[in-house]
Design brief:
There is one protein chain. With 154 residues, this protein is mainly beta. It contains two helices and nine strands, in the order ααβββββββββ. The chain has one domain (29-153): Nucleic acid-binding proteins (OB fold (Dihydrolipoamide Acetyltransferase, E2P), Beta Barrel), CATH 2.40.50. The strands form two sheets. The protein has a five-stranded mixed β-barrel. The protein has a four-stranded mixed beta sheet with strand order 3-1-2-6, covered by helices on one side. A hairpin with a 5-residue loop joins strand 4 (81-91) and strand 5 (97-108).
């Protein structure tokens, strides 16, 4: 068995290399998620509503987190919501410095458990501000969270 001193002296004999691991990753939205994404394509924010306790969840769930009952019904939430958190970033998704910072908001909706994190727009957005989503034009929506351009002050 090597002593700590021997291990530290042999550090220079370590080898390194640069390589890449190819990843191919696909994730399906699931039953509730697919219905939510179809709603976005139609310009609606949908939440799943429990038939037993009437709680509504965004993002939608297939089972109520409180009752463990299967949830099949979706209901429209909003479209207006309330800013519950705000964050600003001057670093892009790839680690690059942005010329203009991006504002992110967590938006909650009345009577809904959960909410959405998305881009926020408008000077001085703060917690408690009422916001509404601005959807892309109908022909350019794809059934993605990015069908919402951002949340704007109302």
């Amino acid at each position: 068995m090597m002593t700590l001193k021997e291990r530290l002296t042999n550090v220079g004999s370590m080898r390194t290399w640069t390589d890449q691991i190819p990843f191919h990753y696909e994730y399906t939205a699931g039953v509730a998620g697919e219905r939510f994404l179809r709603g976005l394509r139609e310009g609606k924010i949908l939440g799943s509503e429990c038939p037993k306790c009437k709680k509504t969840y965004i993002p939608p769930k297939t089972y109520c987190l409180g009752c463990f009952v299967e949830v099949k019904k979706l209901r429209e939430a909003g479209p207006e919501g309330t800013v519950a958190a705000v964050a600003e970033s001057s670093v892009g998704f790839e680690g690059e410095r942005l010329k203009r910072h991006k504002t992110f908001v967590f938006v909650g909706f009345t009577g809904v458990t959960g909410g959405l994190i998305h881009f926020g727009s408008g000077k001085g957005l703060k917690i408690g501000d009422r916001v509404a989503p601005r959807f892309k034009p109908v022909g350019s929506r794809k059934g993605s969270l990015l069908d919402i351009e951002g949340f704007f002050k109302t």
